[in-house]
Amino acid sequence: MATPEIIRKITTAQDFATLPVVAGKVLTLLSDDESNVKEIAAVIETDTSLTLKILQVANSPLYALRQPVASVMQAILALGVSRVTNIVLSVSIFSKYLMLARNVNPAFMERYWLHSSSVGMVARVLAAKIGRSFKDTEFLAGLLHDTGKMAMMQFEPELFTESVNMAAMRQKSDIEIEQEIFDADHCIIGATITQMWRLPQEYRIVTEYHHTPDLAPNHRELTAVVRVADMLCEIWGANFYENITELDLASTSAWQILCSSFPKLKDLDVEKFTFELETEFRDAADFLQLMVK
Predict the structure, then answer these.
(1) pLDDT at 265 over 90
(2) What superfamily does domain 5-292 belong to in CATH?
């Protein structure tokens, strides 16, 4: 089967091929059983602007630390290696998006940023409410889930605009129209990017299967959390052209996966639960401001 043209463009584009250097080094250290937190902190601190941004995020209301942290090592001790690593990746990915945004329609880019950060934030709150700790993996997975659309906007802006207009006009899902126009959808494209960036497997799984969490070979709970967050953000006004106009959450495979893992959800007042989530998703705007200022 021939490789879709957009995937060929992405995989051969030098400016899209890798994450910023420090993020790559941190991922390499994490895969080495002999590495330690001092090494990880030292690598992060080689990038002053990244370090300042990490400390801004760590000291923000998002983490509600009892005492402010003044160094990467303090942040690691307070939050743990996994959470700090996910902050590093979040900041690095946003910096990558900012660099790429120069060629993207500003209106699309603004909506993309709001949607992605909102999904990450709602996924984080949802995971906490069901008592499941993913150590902020859910936040970064939410941030990444529509990376394929970012690539479409970057490499085929006219075709992306056409796909958005066509989906709205024909009242079809974004996935269906993308397959028609690009011969690939944003899930497959996004999964390709996570592999290029050598991100841990769970991010590829979420990116590839966030529309079909029941088909995910593993990490189904994480994928389901991100998908529920994604759908809620679509109907709350932080949408990104998926064309969801109404949502019966209980009938979705994502919610059913979560109910299977957490049976108490079956007795939950879903309307009240989602209302509580909606009030907290406003924090996404605060995160977005931290990232772009």
Answers:
(1) no
(2) Hypothetical protein af1432 (1.10.3210.10)
